[in-house]
Amino acid sequence: MDTLPAPFVPPAPTPRKTPPSTLEMIRIVYRNPLELWGEPSYNEPYISVSGIGGPLVIANDPALIRHVLVDNAKNYRMATVRQKILRPILRDGLLTAEGDVWKRSRKAMAPVFTPRHIFGFARPMLERSLAFAERYETGGTVDVATDMTMLTYDILAETLFSGEIAGEPGSFASQIDRLFETMGRVDPLDLLRAPDWLPRLTRLRGRKTMAYFRKIVADTITMRSERMKSAPDEVPEDFLTLLLRAEGPSGLTRGEIEDNIITFIGAGHETTARALGWTIYCLAEAPWEREPIEREIDAVLAREPDPVKWLDAMPLTRAAFEEALRLYPPAPSINREPIVPEQWRDLYIPPKAAVLIMPWTIHRHRKLWDRPDAFMPSRFHPENRDRIDRYQYLPFGAGPRVCIGASFAMQEAIIALAVLMSKYRFNTTPETRPWPVQKLTTQPEGGLPMTVERRNPAA
Ligand code: HEM
């Protein structure tokens, strides 16, 4: 039997040996929180410390995670810091809503994310991926990181609005990037839990962009709702139509529909793009993993034209994507705060503690994974999956607030990978030196410059 090369170990900060000073900590949080965590965060079941802004609990033990996210979820609200960053942008969208508004919205939105509707999006996902892939026909060097954000934006714009956006479509896409770049940042003042009246300089610039962006979304909603009245049989079955059907006294208000459109863009576009970029990068650095995936994709595409079936038919492709989600979870930190303090086994969770459930450290935890830093998609092959505890792998969170778009994202990722990898091969160059940085998502600093070539020039 051939022996495979040693697994590829992609770039990541080494756990700190000593804690940083307070000043250094603020600087790291602002620049890249992934560089903050020390050896204990990757080795201990939990850590309870007094942080710069108050008590901090880092939860790594799957049983503790289950306790916070599922069994006693009613005792946990969204962490104050996270809300301060996201609520000004997303308001009462599902990601930032709490209490009764969240409960009503989640219920009203469940029908939007049924398998039937998600399957309905497979065709536009395929069409957008095929159209997007054409740009690679000429080969050359491309930035896969930027390209994937454009591809997932194309797919989201199509599945949200079917291209029917008020105003200039081009400006909409560029406004999104500016909005999240300027608004969605941790401000050092948030971390210090400074009072709200102190202006956050990092966010001031985003206000104008946001007003403009919200107006486009509001106009788009009005345009569609008028069309639903005048020509109900002709409206596309996209997210916007589905959300407008959920409008009503026990469903969503018009303002919440607007908030949720913005939430879907914020939560569903860059996340999937980052995971796709990291997958393509890791596979390029591990060609012995890539070849069987290419063969799998070729075989499935040759016999199965229906993209709805691809997710189940491509276990190796899916495993590589899941392994990239493990190593580079697009949402690297899930943050909660107890409503009342409580005791869990030996751990006291004090009032107002920031409880951090960090896929970043949990997915690389020394006691939970074999060779935690290595890219080894076989962990996720169907025969090995049972060995992974439900609460040690949390790319989409868990419990009542689990990602509502997870099936959408998985289907989208497999369709995009199948289209791209059936036609092209992406390779790294000496300039491909990404460094994972936590902004809103886990981004590759330095981008992912890669060469692209056609796989079957004769085909
Ligand atoms: C690879 C892609 C994605 C990843 C890694 C991801 C990750 C997550 C995570 C970890 C949460 C839980 C946050 C928490 O508990 O605090 C979440 C929630 C959420 N996600 Fe995703 N997501 C992805 C794609 C999407 C897509 C495509 C959409 C929408 C179309 C979406 C919409 C949402 C919404 C609305 C919530 C809030 C759910 C609630 O609180 O009830 N996500 N996501």
Write the layout of secondary structure elements.
Elements: H1 22-31, H2 39-43, E1 46-51, E2 54-59, H3 62-71, E3 76-78, H4 80-90, H5 99-109, H6 115-120, H7 122-133, E4 140-143, H8 144-161, H9 169-183, H10 188-191, H11 201-204, H12 206-230, H13 239-245, H14 254-268, H15 270-285, H16 287-303, H17 310-313, H18 315-327, E5 334-338, E6 342-344, E7 347-349, E8 354-357, H19 359-362, H20 406-423, E9 424-428, E10 435-438, E11 442-445, E12 449-454
Parallel strand pairs: 2-8
Antiparallel strand pairs: 1-2, 3-5, 4-12, 5-8, 6-7, 9-12, 10-11
Helix pairs in contact: 7-8, 7-20, 8-14, 8-15, 9-12, 12-14, 15-18, 15-20
The structure holds protoporphyrin IX containing FE.
Outline: globular
Amount of helix: 40-55%
Number of helices: 20
Bound molecules: protoporphyrin IX containing FE
Strand percentage: 5-15%
How many domains? The number is 1
At CATH's second level, what is the architecture? Orthogonal Bundle
Summarize model confidence as the mean pLDDT.
92
Q: How many β-strands, per DSSP?
A: 12
- Spatial strand order of the main sheet: 1-2-8-5-3
Q: Which fold name corresponds to the CATH topology?
A: Cytochrome p450
Q: Compute the CA-based radius of gyration.
A: 22 Å
Structural class: alpha+beta
Name of the top-level CATH class:
Mainly Alpha
CATH superfamily: Cytochrome P450
Give the uncertain stretches in residue-range form.
none
Give the termini separation: 32 Å
> Biggest sheet, open or closed, and with what strands and sense?
5 strands, mixed
